[in-house]
Every structure is written in structure tokens, then in C-alpha cells.
Write a structure and sequence with these properties.
By secondary structure, the protein is an alpha/beta fold. The chain has 16 helices and 25 strands. It has a 7-stranded mixed beta sheet, with helices on both faces. It has a 6-stranded mixed beta sheet with strand order 10-9-8-11-12-24, with helices on both faces. Helix 4 runs parallel beside helix 5. It binds nicotinamide-adenine-dinucleotide (NAD). Nicotinamide-adenine-dinucleotide (NAD) binds next to helix 7 and helix 8.
């Protein structure tokens, strides 16, 4: 059985505790590798290595950092198939999805930030009449922590690491203990791409021990975290008294507003995808679907029909639309909402059952499930289920649709389907969400800021916002005399 190793100071190390955690393959329910159960001693080593590497790394030229990131990007693409298979095995997602989205996007993250840094500049402010100028500088923060979740493992891990590294920081990173494999493979890729030792340290283990040791370490100056809202609250509470810089990308319960005047076929096809891509385990999935009353019955019939045709199957099968959920506890959590759907006032229209896939009887498979609800206040609409479960509900007016969309503690993303331009403009500015898509879903230029409102997070990542997060701003002012 393969042992995943920590990557600290350019070396592949076993955990100090010599304890290992089981890593499960969701599609078979079997343990297939072991993960270091790292503790504060491993984190202390990693932070020390990062501190030692910082003086040199922060002074490398932009060209040098940029070209190393470029090499990492190329190497991810050269190893695409290995990473695709590893990601699908570790996470349960269809290989086709990892091949089309996860792994190419991980390569793009490195490529994008290798280029973005060359265009990142600071400002000068001339004090007219005083013969003086103030100018700003952006400096790397030092040692930063990057902590990521299991749903898009390499995609989100690299989304944090690339901007942190390219702006001159040294990194202590922890992938989710549920999906550590591609982060481990990435440590090999970065090592071979010539990243100097100590610049990137990848430490594996549980959130409550390994992750906790990162957020508590006084010399980690910033935490970029993506994960659940409850964990985000805990991190904020722990890190705030140490004045760490925080970027928190948290949970969502995204509304999908469908108006009768939309391009119906395109909407229907995209809504199936925005509901069930990655088994519904994308923070941006539209999990609350609100449909204008005049087309509600038609939509209900067509949507249920399409959803019931989705194939639940093994990640490696070409016919699979919906793979396995990421873990047994997560399957049980999602299933518990389905079991109580009626108690919560819901009616299951399709799905609702666990699935047995031949040859993989212990895998964590669940039918894509559509539940009709009569109130937005029910638990099914208020709590993040984060699985292949969506709710349907009709609305009568635009005002009601807006109220329903905003009637939740989260504010990550929203999708509007309409061909009415004025309505688009009105709703886009009134919906409480960091991202509003119109007549599309998951369309994202890497330059755009990304992040949530309300309980979906604090801060923005992506594009220059990520480079701003991973740098501190200083201003300096030569005296007018020095300029003369
Ligand atoms: P999680 O909060 O349980 O874990 C996320 C990461 O935090 C993991 O690496 C975990 O080990 C670590 N962690 C847990 N406790 C910690 C602690 N005390 N200190 C430091 N680190 C700790 O989330 P998850 O179950 O892995 O992921 C699912 C959640 O992530 C969902 O809520 C989803 O909406 C959210 N998510 C948000 C975005 C976004 O961009 N807003 C993107 C993807 C996923």
C-alpha cells in the first residue's frame, strides 16, 4: 500500500508521530493508501524551512519565479493522465470531469499567475506643488498557510499556492485529508521543476491537528482557507487575535432563478450540469432552483426526466455522469437530508436512493435527487447539503424571486435565466452573492475576483486580488530634497 509523504524543506518525510491515516477510494469504499497523521512538530519543521527559504525566495527576480511556475504548469500537463486518474480515484469524481476541468485548471492556475505577476504594479502619487512623490510597494508577507477542501482537490490547492509563491512568499500548505493524493503528486512536480527547498511545504493530516497547528503558528502571517463555514468561523476566531491576514472562501446555498422568457433548452441543459456536476459537490452548484410559475410544471417534468437519465457509475467508465460521493460520512450526511425530506416539507420527485454499482458494491453512490419544497425556510433550502440534491419551488414575481434568492445566510453565487436585459441588470445588483451568472454557469475568467458575501466568506481571491492578498502594501516618500 502506498504511503503519502510530507514534503518539507525539499525532502519527502514521514510524520514525526509515525502515525498514519487511512485514505479511502470512494468508488470502491476500500482503503488504498496511507496519509501522514502530522502534528504540530511537522508544522514547526515546515514553518522553519519556509522561514529559512524566505530571504532568498523573496529576492528572486519576477522572471525567475515566473519561469518556475511556468515549468510547474507544463509539468502538470505532461502528467495530465496520471493526475486525472489519481484525482478520480481519490475523490470519486468521473475521470472525464477531472480531464476536462480539474487538472487543466490546476495547470492554468500556475500559468495564469506566472503571467499575472509580470503585470502587477504599484502606484506613485505625485504631491503637486510640493515637489514630492509618495509611492507604494508591495512586499510578500513571509510564511503563509494555504488550506483547501476535498471537492476540487488540485484545482483549489493550486489556486492558492500559485499566487502565494509567485508573489514571493514561502508556503505551508495542507490539502484535505480526504483527498491528499494529487497534492502529494504536486510536491514531486514542484520538486522536479526546481522550486528551491523550503519554498513550498506540503503537510498532510487532519484539520483539527495539522490544520490547527498551521492556523495557531505565530509565524504564519496569513491564511488562505477554502472550506466549510463552521471551519472558517473557527479559523477566524483563532487567527484574529494574532492579526493574521485572512481570506475565507466558505459554503454556499446558491439560487438558480429561471424566468419564463429564457432560452429554455440551453437553460435546461445547463441546469442539469449546475445541479449535479461533481456529484453536486461544487460550492458554486445551484442547489435551490426557483422557477417562474407559468413554466414551473413544464420545467418540473423536463428536468426530472433529464435527471433520471443521468448515469451513476464508476469514475473510470465513459458513460458515468455522476460518480461516487467523496466519503462514507459525507454520503451519510447527504442521505440524512433525503431521509428526512418529507419531515422538512419536501416531496422527492426523482432519486433519493443509494446506488449499488456492480463490482464496486461498497462505493459511496447516490442517485441525483430532486425535491420539491413549498417554503424557502425549510432545512432543505437553508442548510448546505453539498451533494447531488436540489430543491424546486415556483415563484410568481421578480420581487418574490429576489426575496427567495436572498433569503438564506449564504451569498456565494447565483444564476439568472432570462432574456430581459433590464431584469438582468436589476437582479444582478440586488442579489446578495459574490458571483452572478446570467444565462450561463461556471464561466470564469481567471482575472475576475472570486469570493462570497454574508456567511460565504470574507475577502476575494483570483486575478490581482490574490496577489494583493499575498502581499502587504507599504508606502514610502523620498523627501523632495532627495529628488532635486
Ligand atoms: P472543511 O471545512 O471540513 O475542511 C476544509 C479544510 O480545512 C480541510 O483541509 C480540513 O482538514 C481543514 N480544517 C478542518 N478543521 C480545521 C482547523 N481547525 N484548522 C485548520 N484547518 C482545518 O471543508 P470540506 O468538507 O473539506 O469542504 C467542503 C466545504 O468547502 C463546503 O462547505 C463547500 O461549500 C466549501 N467550499 C467553498 C468554496 C469557495 O470557494 N467558497 C470552494 C470549495 C468548497
Amino acid at each position: 500500500m502506498q504511503n503519502i509523504l510530507n514534503y518539507i524543506n525539499g525532502e519527502f518525510l514521514e510524520p514525526q508521530s509515525q502515525e498514519w491515516l487511512d485514505n479511502y477510494e470512494p468508488s470502491s469504499g476500500k482503503v488504498y493508501s496511507k496519509i501522514p497523521n502530522s502534528d504540530e512538530r511537522d508544522i514547526a519543521l515546515a514553518v522553519k524551512a519556509a522561514e529559512n527559504a524566505f530571504p532568498n525566495w523573496s529576492k528572486t527576480t519576477i522572471e525567475e519565479r515566473s519561469s518556475i511556475l511556468q515549468r510547474i504548469s507544463e509539468s502538470i500537463l505532461e502528467n495530465l493522465e496520471i493526475l486525472v486518474i489519481a484525482e478520480a480515484k481519490d475523490n470519486g469524481k468521473p475521470e472525464s470531469l477531472a480531464r476536462a476541468v480539474d487538472i487543466p485548471r490546476a495547470a492554468s492556475n500556475f500559468k495564469f499567475f506566472s503571467q499575472a505577476i509580470t503585470q502587477f504594479s504599484t502606484n506613485a502619487h505625485e504631491s503637486v506643488g510640493l515637489n514630492a512623490v509618495n509611492y507604494t510597494l508591495r512586499k510578500p508577507l513571509g510564511v503563509v498557510g494555504c488550506i483547501s477542501p476535498w471537492n476540487l482537490p488540485l484545482y483549489l490547492f493550486t489556486w492558492k499556492i500559485a499566487p502565494a509563491l509567485v508573489s514571493g512568499n514561502c508556503v505551508v500548505a495542507k490539502p484535505s485529508e480526504v483527498t491528499p493524493m494529487t497534492a502529494y503528486l504536486l510536491s514531486n512536480i514542484c520538486h522536479n521543476a526546481g522550486l528551491p527547498k523550503g519554498v513550498l511545504n506540503i503537510v498532510h493530516g487532519l484539520g483539527t491537528t495539522t490544520g490547527q497547528a498551521i492556523i495557531e503558528h505565530p509565524n504564519v502571517k496569513a491564511i488562505s482557507f477554502t472550506g466549510g463555514t463552521a471551519t472558517g468561523e473557527h479559523i477566524a476566531r483563532t487567527a484574529a487575535p494574532m492579526f493574521k491576514k485572512l481570506s475565507l472562501e466558505l459554503g454556499g446555498k446558491n439560487p438558480n432563478l429561471i424566468f419564463a422568457d429564457c432560452d429554455y433548452d440551453r437553460m435546461l441543459e445547463t441546469t442539469v450540469r449546475s445541479s449535479f456536476a461533481n456529484q453536486g459537490q461544487i460550492c458554486l452548484c445551484g442547489s435551490r432552483i426557483f422557477v417562474e410559475a407559468s413554466i414551473y410544471d413544464k420545467f418540473k417534468t423536463d428536468f426530472v426526466n433529464k435527471v433520471s437519465q443521468l448515469n451513476v457509475g464508476h469514475p473510470s467508465s465513459k458513460d458515468t455522469n455522476v460518480g461516487a460521493l467523496v466519503s462514507k460520512p459525507h454520503l451519510e450526511k447527504v442521505f440524512s437530508y433525503i431521509e428526512k425530506a418529507e419531515t422538512y416539507g419536501g416531496k422527492i420527485l426523482t432519486g433519493g436512493n443509494k446506488v449499488t454499482v456492480k463490482g464496486y458494491e461498497d462505493g459511496y453512490y447516490l442517485e441525483p435527487t430532486v425535491i420539491e419544497v413549498s417554503s424557502n425556510d425549510c432545512k432543505l433550502n437553508q442548510e448546505e447539503i453539498f451533494g447531488p440534491v436540489v430543491t424546486l419551488m415556483p415563484f410568481k414575481t421578480e420581487e418574490e424571486a429576489l426575496q427567495l434568492a436572498n433569503g438564506v445566510r449564504y451569498g456565494l453565487a447565483a444564476t439568472i435565466w432570462t432574456n430581459n436585459l433590464n431584469r438582468t441588470m436589476r437582479l444582478s445588483s440586488e442579489i446578495e452573492a459574490g458571483i452572478v451568472w446570467v444565462n450561463t454557469w461556471m464561466m470564469r475568467d481567471l482575472r475576475t475576483p472570486f469570493g462570497g458575501m454574508k456567511d460565504s466568506g470574507v475577502g476575494r481571491e483570483g486575478g490581482f486580488e490574490a496577489l494583493r492578498f499575498f502581499t502587504c502594501l507599504l508606502y514610502t516618500s523620498p523627501s523632495p530634497r532627495d529628488l532635486s
